[in-house]
């Protein structure tokens, strides 16, 4: 059974930082690309960042939505089956529920989401 559990959300002031984590189980984690999405109130869910599979850090690639490029960093720890999203220079428009996502055996799996609120 595939499970994705996010953590690390919270309330932060504009310009601040948060680090989100997603713990995965039920999959061969190192072989699978991972993604983060977010959904702001009244808006559609949007893709935020992706990281490819691979045992070696140098062999992986990352990609980001234009809105977060240069501020967010996605990474993974295959030994711990976790994917993280380091978010710096946060803006009020980053306020959303953040979701971890994986496509495994042609099925979509989502975590329960973690709320990030950027406000003074």
Per-chain topology:
Elements: E1 3-7, E2 10-12, E3 18-25, E4 34-39, E5 46-51, E6 62-64, E7 72-77, E8 82-87, E9 96-104, E10 107-110, E11 114-118
Parallel strand pairs: 2-11
Antiparallel strand pairs: 1-3, 3-8, 4-5, 4-9, 5-6, 7-8, 9-10, 9-11
Outline the structure in words:
The chain has 120 residues and is mostly beta strands. The chain is 0% helix and 51% strand. It contains no helices and 11 strands. Strands 2, 4, 5, 6, 9, 10 and 11 form a 7-stranded mixed β-sheet that branches. The chain has a 4-stranded antiparallel β-sheet with strand order 1-3-8-7, with no helix packed on it. It is globular and about 40 Å long. The model has no long low-confidence stretch (mean pLDDT 94).
| Largest sheet geometry | 7 strands, mixed
Q: So what's the overall shape? A: globular
Count of alpha/pi helices? 0
> How would you spell out the order of helices and strands?
EEEEEEEEEEE
Spans of at least 5 consecutive residues whose pLDDT stays below 50 are none
Structural class designation: mainly beta
